[in-house]
Each structure stands twice: as C-alpha cells, then as structure tokens.
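Case 370 in the screening queue. Each case pairs one protein sequence with one candidate compound; here the compound is G4F. For every case the pipeline is the same: read the inputs, emit a complex structure as tokens, and attach any notable structural observations.

Predict complex for case 370.
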Amino acid sequence: MARRALITGITGQDGSYLTELLLGKGYHVHGVVRRSSVFTTERIDHLYQDRHETDVRLHLHYGDLLDATGLHRLMTETQPDEVYNLAAQSHVRTSFDQPVYTAEVVAVGTLKLLEAVRDYRDLSGRAVRFYQASSSEMYGSNSQAPQSERTPFHPRSPYACAKVHAYWQTINHREAYGLFACNGILFNHESPRRGETFVTRKITRAATRIKLGLQNALYLGNLDAKRDWGFAGDYVEAMWLMLQQDEPDDFVVATGQCHSVREFLDEAFGCLDLDWRRYVRFDARYLRPTEVNLLQGDAAKARERLAWRPTVTMAELCRMMVDADLRLAQRERALVDAGHPIDVPYETLESGSIPPPSPKAASQPVAASK
Ligand code: NAP
Ligand code: G4F
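Case 370 output:
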C-alpha cells in the first residue's frame, strides 16, 4: 500500500519541495493549510489535482499548529506513516516583533503536534515517524565553526529560543515515549521559491528588477553576517532520509561552505553585470537586536549515515535564483511597457521602486521586520 505523509507548512518553500519528492516516491501526501483570506498555495499549485480526478495523491486540509484539537483530528483522519513538521513563523527578525506568537507556533505548536502524534500512535497501535524542522539559528552566538550535532546552542532570537524548545520536546518524546522522532538541524537553504523577505531572495529579486529598470535601490541591514547557504531541493531529501533509518537520530544538514551577505551581493549583481555598491543602501530597521554572525555547518554525520550530499554550490544557487527572478521581472516589465500598473509586494516598493507606492500599498502597516 502507498505510504502516507502528513506535512505541516506544505505551502512554504520546503513544504513544496518535500511534496514533490514524496509524490515522486509514490506517497499519498496530506498537507495542512492555514485558512487565509487570500490563496496561499502558489508554491504547490503545479502539484494540485482536482479531487474528482483519478489517482489523486495530494490532499489538502485546513489546520493550524495553534489548534490542538484539529491536529488530533487530522492524525486520525489521515493516518500518516510519517509526519513532517515544517510549519513555523520562520522569519528571525519578525520574531523580535512577535515573540509570544512565534513561541506559541514554533515551540508550543510543535508540542501540540507531538502530543497528537503520540496519542494517535498509542490509540491506533500504528507506527508513525516524526520529523522536526530544527534550525542552525539555535547555535546563535556560538561561533565555534563549523557547527555540528555536538556544538552547544546559544539562541539569539525569540525564533531560535522557540526552536530550541521544540528540538528538546522532540528528543524528549523519543526518550520518554519511544517515539521515532528526528531533528534535522538545517542550515540556511534557499531557492527560487524562497520567501521574498529573506536576504538571498530579497537580493535576487531586487537585482533583476534593477536590471530591467523597475527599481532603483535596495535597502539592507548587516552585510557582514555569514551563512552556509544550500539549495532547498537538496535539503528535503535529507529530511526524508532521516525517517527511513533503523533508529531515530538528529542530523546537521549543511554545505560546509559559508559566505557573507556582501559576497552574495557580489555574486547576484555580478550575474547581471551590475555593481551592487551603486544601488544598495543601509536601513537600520533590518538590523536585529541580537545578530547571529557566523553559521557554517559540519554535515559529516549526515554524509556518513544518510549518504546525503549537497549538489548545488552557493554560486549555482544564486544563478538559479537570478535566472528565475529575471523571468519574473521580464513579465513585470512587459506589463509596465503595455501600460498596466504592476502589483509589486510592499517590500519591493519600500526598497525604492519606480513608480512610487500606490495608495493601496502605502496604506499597509510599516513592516519594520522584513
Ligand atoms: P516558510 O517558507 O516560511 O514556510 C512556513 C510554513 O509554515 C508556511 O506553509 C506557513 O503557512 C506555515 N505556517 C506558519 N504558521 C503556521 C501555523 N500557525 N499553523 C500551520 N502552518 C503555519 O519556511 P521554510 O523556509 O519552508 O522552512 C520550513 C521549516 O524549516 C520552518 O519550520 C523553518 O523554521 C525551518 N527552517 C528553515 C530553514 C531555511 O533556511 N529555509 C533553515 C532551518 C529551519 P502560510 O503559507 O499560510 O504562511
Ligand atoms: O535571510 P535571513 O533573514 O535568514 P536567517 O535570519 O539566517 O534565518 C533563516 O535561516 C535560518 C537557518 O539558519 C532559519 F531557521 C530561519 O527560519 C530562516 O530561514 O538573514 C540572513 C542574514 C542575517 O544575518 C541578516 O541580518 O542576512 C542579514 N540581512 C542583512 N540585511 C538581512 C537583511 N536579512 C533580511 N531578512 N533582510 C535584510 O534586509
């Protein structure tokens, strides 16, 4: 019988790549979608099948990590063999603006899901495996690099503190209740589907719009921070591999290479024959009260036990994102040239777009945290 997976955060970057991977392996995939007044399924629209078609293997359900009752019901209804907990308020800077909400979703929400998984296993007698999306942000100010599974955590944001809580709850469910539960400690991973307010995508989006005369400046914060950037498509493979092992365990997933934001700017603008120094401006609103200066992972354990390896370098990743965003910018340019106003995100407008913000965009709350 086909295996069944339940994915929280299916509408996010990683959720979309993981869904592609699991559907490709013949799984039935059940995804948890938050109710919203607008569509949020853009990243998985290409995978969606009308429920009236035959052999439908992607099923979407409304749910929220804040809703424990709904999570219990979803476990019973979908009867998954594997649960991937990818849902999160995942923006580090935003977590300083919304610390309690972030903790409720990321920390307590994960605990609610773990409890739903445990109860389902105990009541149904069925085996179920659990993956927790842990983060390299948990290392925080521990700049002892490269960071491995043995490196102590020193979280530097409400987001990272919440992820540490979820990490230990996952381990405690493994040790206290014998749950097959794994933490993937993933370092930064990006793609053309990356949210537009994370620094890599913010840069590739802006650079390509600047190239086509749609924008004239890009406002950023700390350019000296260093990150270990890999490709999201590679990293979801590691998530799946963790749940296929004989024993549950925790794994760092990283490329082992790290680069500064400045170097990513060099690479992205370089792909377009532009000099970023002409366009990038500093805006203190993008600084964090406490910064994580250096993340560089040691994924030796994943290499040895999972036979996992990254396949995309930072330069290749950057080129992939620039190419995809150039196609987006070309579509916007065509609309502008045809005399149609373009509906660009607030963040892009704020970064110095031409034309100036429409009254609709200007009336949105000032997003200090993107
Ligand atoms: P993302 O693009 O921000 O996606 C987050 C997902 O969580 C979205 O589907 C979002 O739904 C959903 N979500 C948010 N709050 C929720 C709630 N209360 N209930 C249910 N769903 C909720 O994040 P990502 O980059 O794919 O990352 C996936 C996971 O890995 C996250 O837990 C993140 O913290 C963690 N992580 C990411 C990285 C990275 O570099 N990408 C590294 C380490 C760990 P909407 O679409 O409705 O917003
Ligand atoms: O792209 P970022 O916002 O990613 P960050 O904070 O490293 O977090 C991401 O990776 C984590 C894994 O380590 C995940 F757990 C988390 O969910 C998320 O996916 O920022 C990267 C760096 C930071 O040092 C930031 O200060 O870029 C710096 N930066 C400089 N200017 C900026 C900006 N970041 C953002 N978002 N926007 C800027 O204008």
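Case 370 observations:
- The pocket of NAP (ligand 1) is lined by residues 8-9, 11-15, 32, 34, 36, 40, 64-66, 86-90, 105, 109, 133, 135, 186, 188-189, 195 (CB under 6 Å).
- The CA atoms of residues 19 and 29 lie 7 Å apart.
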